[in-house]
Write a structure and sequence with these properties.
CATH architecture of the largest domain: 3-Layer(aba) Sandwich
Distance between the termini: 39 Å
CATH class of the largest domain: Alpha Beta
Number of domains: 2
Strand order of the largest sheet: 3-2-1-4-5-6-7
Largest sheet: 7 strands, mixed
CATH topology of the largest domain: Rossmann fold
CATH superfamily of the largest domain: Formyl transferase, N-terminal domain
Number of strands: 9
Shape: globular
Order of helices and strands: EHEHEHEHEHEEHEE
Radius of gyration: 18 Å
């Protein structure tokens, strides 16, 4: 798997992916980091790990299609086979979704389909969770389609919401789960264990060693 990570912010999920690759927990090569802004902290993390970077601001293009072509050119230049969105604050153009359908994931800081959609990102999500009064939130890794936070769900993990939670405290607990869940989801894709049937995602169980007839019971 030759992986591109799209990020707009500090890139803590990007760092979790880099750590998983460096720790031999994710059999992938991080081929590039693409951002919409030159000020993204993720780009500094990429430089520290000798990962090539691209800054492709959508405002520089006359249409989403033209923006998409620029993204596709950047991905092709690095022979990217899989895309991971990690705090990327831009809608992916349809031509990029088509090119990487089934091979592009996003991580969202809630249990989709709850608390998703346009404008629901970062602290906006955690404030909405607390204001609504739910007892559980979490993190979701999903495939990317043409709608915000809508693609088939690959992995989810719940996180409790406490009565005295602040958005910042909740965000920290959710982020800890994200940093574990996202590399694990990418590892499953790299191992060829993720299969899609419309909105249903099936994950193959890991292979178990066959027992020899001489093995003791």
């Amino acid at each position: 798997m030759r992986l591109a990570v799209f990020a707009s912010g500090e890139g803590t999920n990007f760092q979790a992916i880099l750590d998983a690759v460096g720790g031999d927990r994710l059999p992938a090569e991080v081929a590039c980091c693409i951002s919409n802004t030159k000020d993204a902290g993720a780009l500094k993390r990429a430089d520290q790990h000798d990962v090539p970077t691209e800054v492709i601001p959508p405002a520089s293009f006359e249409s989403p299609e033209a923006f998409g072509h620029a993204l596709l050119d950047g991905l092709a230049a690095h022979d990217v086979t899989f895309v991971a969105l990690a705090g990327y604050m831009q809608k992916i153009p349809p031509n990029v979704v088509d090119a990487y359908r089934g091979s592009m994931t996003n991580i969202h800081p809630a249990l989709l389909p709850a608390f998703g959609g346009q404008g629901m990102y970062g602290m906006h999500v955690h404030r909405a969770v607390i204001d609504y009064g739910v007892h559980w939130t979490g993190a979701t890794v999903h495939l990317v389609d043409e709608e915000y936070d809508h693609g088939p769900i690959v992995l989810q993990e719940p996180v409790p919401v406490y009565a005295d939670d602040t958005p910042e405290a909740l965000a920290n607990r959710v982020r800890e789960v994200e940093h574990r869940l996202y590399p694990e989801a990418l590892r499953l894709f790299a191992a060829g264990r993720v299969h899609q049937d419309d909105r249903c995602i099936r994950i193959d169980a890991p292979d178990h060693p066959r027992r020899s007839p001489t093995d003791s019971e």
